[in-house]
Structure to design on (70 residues):
């Protein structure tokens, strides 16, 4: 799984599972991809959004914030 960290012009900078950063052309991503989106790469090389993984990440982040700030 890769996570879109940010966009710079027509390039998405994605964090990989090992913490590295990979550049992906924006046109290779699904049209509704945004910062924070979780991506899966299929055997054909095409990217798809992993909505379940994104929802789980957001839930964990919310819990961390709640634990920190009450």
């Amino acid at each position: 799984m890769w996570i879109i960290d940010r966009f710079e012009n027509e390039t998405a900078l994605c964090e990989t599972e090992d913490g590295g950063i990979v550049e992906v052309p924006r046109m290779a991503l699904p049209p509704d991809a945004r910062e924070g989106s979780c991506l899966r790469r299929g055997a054909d090389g095409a990217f798809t959004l992993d909505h379940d993984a994104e929802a789980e990440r957001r839930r964990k982040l919310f819990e961390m914030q709640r634990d920190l700030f009450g």
The radius of gyration is 13 Å. The longest strand covers residues 2-8. Residues 4 and 14 are 4 Å apart (CA to CA).
